[in-house]
Design brief:
Layout: E1 14-18, E2 21-24, E3 29-32, H1 35-38, H2 47-59, H3 70-83, E4 89-93, H4 96-111, E5 115-119, H5 128-132, E6 149-152, H6 157-164, E7 169-174, H7 188-200, E8 204-208, E9 232-235, E10 246-250, H8 269-284, H9 287-302, E11 308-314, E12 317-322, H10 327-335, E13 339-340, E14 349-352, H11 360-374
Parallel strand pairs: 3-13, 5-6, 5-7, 7-8, 8-9
Antiparallel strand pairs: 1-2, 2-3, 4-10, 9-10, 11-12, 12-14
Helix pairs in contact: 2-8, 3-8, 6-7, 9-11
């Protein structure tokens, strides 16, 4: 049986990894400045993470959500403490797409409306409603297009209000820093205005923090820099440091009922153990502060790079936009300099999403390689 060929693959086969480094089957060491799509938050094979998962699987790896799981309660308390999201409710699932599916479904249950408002260049997942709310026609199948979604320009409050006035929109879903779309963000005035319009027109505001959450921006969540209060927050990626886990944080104004949402694997014992260890390490090693300090260093180093148009993003969710397509440059960084980076919908942009444990010396290696290739 062959694999279903949907991924363009680099000729690199990782076999082990440690902190910010990945090692292939030939023993070559690669600096990981992409973290597997921002998934690796506390570094590869962190000893506390390995210990937490190993200890848990020795006791109990899985049982269904039909029984008590104290780890879920422990995780909810820890997440509230570190994130500052007081009195929110936690529903656990398995991925970012699933988190956004549950967020959109819950919004529709809550207010009885059916349309979605999303923003141009958005990416929210590849399933059902999540992919319909993603601004990429190439990955939206006819069955997904049955969802009724309006797309507006990021920052356009007038267009938002015109749509919400029709009283058909159950949810506005937004990445406060767009990920795959290219790291664009708007102003605090826009995000606060969006929150007010959602309240005015009984529309659920969903903050998609799947990529930007868990300390990546220097705040625990990207939206927190704008002093707003989303109704639902979707989370995944860095949450499990590689273990598949996702979830939504739900404002207390949205009430649960038995059977409203459900999942087989979501919130299993191993997922909870993994996420609890991630939260402990983020707190103990002050990784949000590190994200800000390394980001400042990154911005200073970028000032000397030729052909660079702009730097986008915040914290360790960064993009370098050049005046030329970067696909060949990324290949050179991998195969000549042994550095992993990411791409985006913008063909001229390199995305940088390293583990939050990355240090200034690692950033220096990256910029030395860029200088070597661009001068």
């Amino acid at each position: 049986m062959s694999l279903f060929n949907v991924y363009p693959l680099y000729n690199v086969t990782p076999v082990k990894a440690k902190d910010v480094y990945v090692y292939d089957d030939k023993g070559v060491e690669y600096l990981d400045l992409y973290g597997g799509h921002a998934v690796i938050s506390i570094g590869h094979s962190h000893p506390k993470y390995v210990s937490a998962i190993s200890s848990q699987v020795e006791q109990l790896g899985f049982y269904s959500n039909a029984i008590q799981n104290p780890l879920q309660i422990q995780l909810a308390h820890k997440l509230e403490q570190i994130s500052g999201c007081k009195n929110y409710q936690l529903f656990l699932c398995n991925s970012g797409a699933e988190a956004n599916e549950n967020a959109l479904k819950l919004a529709s249950f809550h207010n009885g409306k059916h349309k979605i408002l999303a923003f141009k260049n958005s990416f929210h997942g590849r399933t059902s409603a999540a992919v319909a709310a993603t601004d990429n026609l190439k990955i939206i199948a006819p069955i997904n297009a049955q969802q009724d979604v309006d797309f507006v320009e990021l920052g356009d409050l007038e267009a938002v209000e015109i749509i919400l006035k029709a009283n058909k929109t159950c949810a506005v879903i937004i990445e406060c820093i767009q990920g795959v779309g290219g790291l664009d963000q708007s102003t605090t005035a826009f995000y606060q205005g969006l929150e007010q319009l959602c309240k005015q027109y009984n529309t659920v505001l969903i903050a998609d923090e799947v990529q930007s959450g868990f300390g990546r921006t220097g705040d625990f969540f990207a939206y927190q820099a704008h002093n707003i209060t989303p109704d639902i927050i979707s989370i995944a990626k860095g949450m499990g440091n590689g273990f598949p886990v996702g979830g939504i944080l739900i404002h207390p104004s949205i009430k649960p009922s038995l059977g409203l949402l459900g999942t087989t694997f979501g919130g299993n014992h191993l997922a909870c153990a993994a996420t609890l260890s991630v939260l402990d390490v983020i707190e103990d090693e002050k990784l949000m502060r590190n994200a800000l300090e390394v980001s400042t260093h990154f911005l200073k180093k970028s000032l000397n790079i030729p052909n660079l148009k702009t730097v986008k993003g915040r914290g360790l969710m960064l993009g370098l936009e050049f005046d030329f397509p970067i696909s060949e440059l990324r290949k050179t960084l991998i195969f000549k300099h042994q550095i992993f980076t990411g791409g985006s919908k913008n063909p001229n942009q390199i995305r940088i999403l390293p583990p939050l444990t990355v240090q200034k010396k690692h950033i220096d290696l990256f910029f030395d390689a860029l200088q070597n290739e661009l001068n």
